[in-house]
Amino acid sequence: MRLSSLLTLACAIAALVLSLLCLFAGSSKSFLQDADLLTLNISRIGHGSLFNTTDGDGGALDNLLNTLEGDLNDLLNDFSSDVATALDLPDFFNVHVMDFCEGVYKPNATLKNAQENITGCSNRTVGFHFQPTKIIQEHLPDGVTLDDLHWPDEIRDAERAIRVASTAMTVLYILGVAFAGTAVLAALWSIFTNGRLSAMINFLMDALAFLAIGIASAIATAVIVKAVDAVNKYGDDIGIAAYKGGKFLGMTWAATAVMLFASVVSIAQCCAPRSRSRRYGEKDGY
Ligand SMILES: *[C@@H]1O[C@H](CO)[C@@H](O)[C@H](O)[C@H]1NC(C)=O
Ligand SMILES: *[C@@H]1O[C@H](CO)[C@@H](O)[C@H](O)[C@H]1NC(C)=O
Ligand SMILES: *[C@@H]1O[C@H](CO)[C@@H](O)[C@H](O)[C@H]1NC(C)=O
Ligand SMILES: *[C@@H]1O[C@H](CO)[C@@H](O)[C@H](O)[C@H]1NC(C)=O
Ligand SMILES: *[C@@H]1O[C@H](CO)[C@@H](O)[C@H](O)[C@H]1NC(C)=O
């Protein structure tokens, strides 16, 4: 019996649950939408732009575009209007580890702390990385382009910069879940035995889970900071804003912290003098 392993068991279970939640938050419209990496608010997209759709040959299409241009410019000058909804775009995107969800603000987008009404989520994939440029381009009505909205190139650059990191992060969370799961089993084994082998395997699993979840958390933090800073720095002019996912960061760093604690406890078990039962000549179990 090694009661200190109850501590590592509790830590491993907590880290397993937390990293599973980080990985699967936002899997459905109603599951932990507030535990997203970041929220992108595009409700005022295009604000401050002037649409110029006059370049053409003067045909019927141009007349159509000119009408659209007038409407859009009126909309953009109205400070309380929801430009995104008028363009048939969602108001916001919640970006998660393996997918994103989109929705509209209720009762309206101008209200601070408006309610999020999620209208749909993308399919979940391990290789997921969020590409707002592509998504917004696909949603825009004919005749309106990203250039019309003055979509900044810097946001495209930031998307490219975090593409590989996003996939690495997802893979590390999956590894973290696997190691934390194994650490739960190792801790159970270690509770009922006194052997040095079980203590060492317990430590190995705790340390691997700590490393995987810790590196995943570091990458996630870097991705969040990089993306949110790029959007807020270059997107402010065109009415888009991004917010860091505080709940997600709390969950992922809490998982890292408990695995660090479990690693410290389990290495202490490895180095501790042999247990009393051994000294009294009882059979040493594994
Ligand atoms: C709109 O585009 C046309 C042709 O590219 C250009 O001649 C005109 O100056 C532009 N208007 C504004 C307001 O930018
Ligand atoms: C948004 O909703 C709030 C609360 O219902 C309301 O006070 C405000 O006037 C609305 N704003 C617009 C632009 O409709
Ligand atoms: C969304 O962004 C706009 C413009 O940046 C801002 O006025 C609005 O309050 C934001 N909405 C929410 C719900 O954060
Ligand atoms: C959310 O949006 C859907 C579709 O636009 C709508 O049917 C539903 O009533 C909305 N829910 C709330 C709480 O506003
Ligand atoms: C998402 O998955 C469903 C069912 O697996 C499939 O029918 C659909 O085409 C997929 N959507 C995208 C955008 O890949």
Automatic annotation (TrEMBL):
Source taxon at top rank: Eukaryota
Keyword tRNA-binding applies: no
Keywords: Membrane, Signal, Transmembrane, Transmembrane helix
InterPro entries reported for this sequence: SUR7/Rim9-like_fungi, SUR7_domain
Signal sequence extent: 1-19
GO BP term, pick one: fungal-type cell wall organization
Gene Ontology cellular component list: cell cortex of cell tip; plasma membrane
Transmembrane intervals: 171-192, 204-228, 248-272
Pfam families noted in UniProt: SUR7
Protein name in the entry: MARVEL domain-containing protein
